[in-house]
Amino acid sequence: MKTNLKKIVVAVMAVAILTSCEAVKNSNNTQRGAVIGTAAGAVIGGIIGNNVKNKNSALGAVIGGVVGGVAGGVIGKQMDKQAQKIESEIPGAEVTRVGEGIDVVFDENSGVYFATNKSTLNSKSKANLNKLAGIFKEYPDTNIIVEGHTDSTGDDSYNMSLSQKRANAVTNYLISQGISKSRLTTYAHGETLPKYDNATPEGRAKNRRVELGIVANEKMKQDAQNQVKQ
After folding, report:
1. What is the pLDDT of the chain when averaged over all its residues?
2. pTM of the model
3. Which of 8, 30, 34, 104 has its CA 20 to 30 A from that of 81?
4. How many domains are there within the chain?
């Protein structure tokens, strides 16, 4: 397990212990998520801020988009449904619910991938992106961060360029499937944000990935706040 993930797990466990009073135990899922989300947001946000070198990352964007409170719990409940939909329709995707957003990872073993040194989407990747685009249309009040990554093999500048081309390929394909360009933000990280050990073939394969962050847009945030006021 990676260091950042270990720290996040420890932070969430600590907050869960701190929020295990009778009132939290007797609350529903949305209320409980709001309580824990408010307390954990700052802790986890600090972990991400201190450890992710480039703040323009999918996971960093998910953490940074926290509304908090009961409104955050409302958003979280909607994100639960979207995450479950992605998991059920694209089984190979690594889907993680984080705070009030979703982190989705595609690597060579999970749905959207590229041939070595290539940035052209293959037929299987397109099929999975078709499913993903359909889900995004069902949940229009979200923004999507698309980022490309490579392993450490090869020149730094080449890897950065390759990761940009791969991220652009995914973004452009989603746009071609009817996803509004205004919902999409694209970043390239090259080899700078590995999630696995580049010293092993398995680790390098997993680092050659496209990662997506799904966060609430302003309309979803406002609707959640209005719902709380009612």
Report:
1. 80
2. 0.76
3. 8
4. 1
